[in-house]
Design brief:
The protein has helices at 2-25, 40-52, 56-67, 73-83, 87-101, 104-117, 121-134, 139-158. It is mainly alpha-helical and 159 residues long. It folds into two domains: 40-101, Tetratricopeptide repeat domain (Serine Threonine Protein Phosphatase 5, Tetratricopeptide repeat), CATH 1.25.40; 103-153, no CATH class. The chain is rod-shaped.
């Protein structure tokens, strides 16, 4: 009987410790914020790689991650949507790129979008002229503007 009396406090203490450990392990869930190890430039590079492999959804995800700190990513997103035929989304992202960066490529690509869809050629000409003004050495931008002017001239002669 004496042996049992000595075991009871130990058993109670052990049970209490086990209960405390169980209680602590079932604490409230924690929110862990992971730090993105990639820079915005690395996200752009990864997106370009995905785009070249035809993995457009993965590219859009990378460009979206980069756009938070690198607004030129909107241009890349516009390019993807243009390739996929979503001209409304492409136009929106090109406009955002123009607004946030003023990049000549964004002006040129939006002008090209208008040219290829025969939508608002006057605005396409204005955008094409702005692209050439921002990058006068670019033969691609001059080519875009020439094609727009040629199409506008053809339309004017029909009227």
């Amino acid at each position: 009987m004496e042996k049992n009396r000595l075991l009871v406090p130990y058993c109670k203490t052990l049970a209490l410790v086990a209960f405390a450990v169980l209680l602590v392990s079932c604490s409230m869930p924690r929110i862990i914020v992971l730090h993105d190890p990639l820079t915005p430039e690395e996200h752009i590079n990864l997106g370009v790689s995905y785009e070249q492999n035809g993995e457009y959804d993965a590219a859009l995800k990378e460009y979206g991650a980069a756009s938070k700190r690198l607004p030129i990513a909107y241009l890349y997103m516009g390019n993807i949507y243009f390739l996929q035929g979503s001209t409304g989304k492409a136009e929106r992202f090109y406009r955002r790129a123009i607004q946030k960066t003023g990049d000549a490529k964004a002006y040129n690509n939006l002008a090209w979008l208008y040219y290829t869809t025969d939508k608002n050629l006057a605005k396409a000409e204005e955008l094409g002229r702005k692209a050439v003004e921002l990058a006068p050495d670019s033969s691609d931008f001059k080519d875009t503007l020439d094609k727009i002017l040629e199409k506008r001239g053809a339309e004017a002669s029909r009227e």
